[in-house]
Hints:
- By secondary structure, this protein is α+β, with helices and mostly antiparallel strands.
- It contains 19 helices and 21 strands.
- The protein folds into 4 domains: 30 residues; 272 residues, Immunoglobulin-like (Sandwich), CATH 2.60.40.1730; 149 residues, Orthogonal Bundle (Neutral Protease, domain 2), CATH 1.10.390.10; 129 residues, Alpha Horseshoe (Serine Threonine Protein Phosphatase 5, Tetratricopeptide repeat).
- Helices cover 40% and strands 20% of the residues.
- Helix 17 runs parallel beside helix 19.
- The longest helix is centred in the first third of the chain and has 24 residues.
- About 3% of the residues have low confidence.
- The site of zinc ion has 4 residues, from helix 5.
Amino acid sequence: MNKYFLFFLVLLFTFLGCTNNQKNDHFLNEDAHSYANFNDVRITHMNLSLTVDFQKNTLDGKVDVSVDNYTNAKQLILDSKDLTIHKVLLDNGVETSFTLGDISEIFGQPLTINIKPSTKVVSIYYTTSPDAEALQWLTPEQTLGKEHPFLFSQSQAILARSWVPCQDGPGVKFTYEATIKTDSNLIALMSAENGTSKNNDGVYTFKMDQPISSYLLALTVGDLAFASTGRNSGVYAEPAMLEKSVWELNAMQSMIDSAEQLYGPYAWERYDVVILPPSFPFGGMENPRLTFATPTIIAGDRSLVALIAHELAHSWSGNLVTNETWNDFWLNEGFTVYFEQRIMEKIFGKPYEEMLTKLGMGELEATIDDLIKEGNSDDTHLYLNLDGRNPDDGLTDVAYEKGRFFLQKVESVVGRQRFDSFLKNYFKANKFKPMNTERFIRNLNNHLLTPEEEQAININAWVYGPGLPDNALIPYSEELDRVESAIAQYNNNQIMANKIDISGYTTHHWLYFLRGLKNLDSIKMRDLDDNFKFTQTGNSEIACDWFKHCIDNQYDVAFPALSDFLIRVGRRKFLTPLYTRLAKTPQNKAWGKEVYQTARKGYHSVSYHSIDEVLK
Ligand SMILES: [Zn+2]
């Protein structure tokens, strides 16, 4: 054979090998919650230019999306929801045609744009709807300062498409930059590099050089001030809230340092938190570089800061290595709860972590019971099938707590040292990439577990089976054991509240206590309230658990405080169980509906969609 021909063959095979690898590199599993044709042509970068209009409650402007066209596709399909698309231009300002497909209540509409195989940038001019599901527009009265309006976004799971036309699946990652124009007395912040003070002209520019998924696109605009909490961390809050917030979150910098020791370098440079008004629907949202947080964690005693450890931990699990589809959501949340506990243990000690873990198990068992009772046993698997459903349905304690207990099981079988070094390598090897359940298990089997260990863990039962496997660890907490005996005595009518030794009780003791109470009646409700002043508590977690008993036992004394709570706080984790309990009797349901009439306008769509269902 001619040596030149041989050389040609070698070149040809190398080339074929490369294209094959490239295909494998970019190929993503099908995403049932996105219309986007990301395996043909994919967004790699976005440049947003938007004007914030507090009169109309809209964002108006354009997004330039840069694309990689793998298959010479002639159409770019994006996700959109309630967007008005004015025009679409290709590279050199040439206008192109587009169509918006049928509307689905959950998924919105596919935006199909005609492109050329050579197209590099597509510019979409659009306006959001005043009802855009991701965006919550607050009137000045709904803020603490009462003077300025406020806006925040919540894009997870599939709401980014209601404010930016995009490929709205977690597997697609892109970098972005943005220019946001707003009122000159407000500051705009994004999940990107942020300034720390207001501009005179109200124009803010942003850059995010690390690739992120669309659900991590975030924007907030309001009267916010900044204070540093350490080397690369700080807090933004309404001015009246700033000092309290900084005091509450004083452990933030040590959390970052501990997390880095555990899982390797923090990839996002700064870690800041913005404390939002109380209508924020979640505890926190791990928007890269800038966690969005509920003010309900500012309890005045630093007792609820585990939430910050959680959001920070997402800087590795979720933001760095991302669930490829929402069916793999447990990879995101299970890891994060596991990390959260590790960070808390490192900073606050083992007994503190043990309390959190035991409380977590209680929540998981209750969730599993409920799901099985409702006939949704499949939703107790770690790997979910959410096809055709709102991915929000998968946002239960199963992903969070069962995920965590699975990883804890792995840790207990292989030992902490080996597990930690596996995790460090796992994050290093997979950073800025999507991960799915199947590949993660392969990773575990190839890089960590012996066949015997694999058998001892029984991965299949955890990931693809219902409920909590028999080999789950049983959490132990000496601190909570003390509470357990008080609960037993109280439940058996052996003692009244004034005889309970509450010395050293923290928020976590109280939560465990409240969750263990049974057979209450009006006398005991009064007894508990007189002694422990639960109705007046400023701690939202304690308030929520107490109000559950108030509803179940028709303790009317607390209903005015309950009504205030439901109107003030928009965090879905509190609202859903309270309204669900109210809906159990016609009288309470009518009362709940009345409160809801006032409260609903203060809730984000994520919350009111859930509550609409509960009260219908
Ligand atoms: Zn989380």
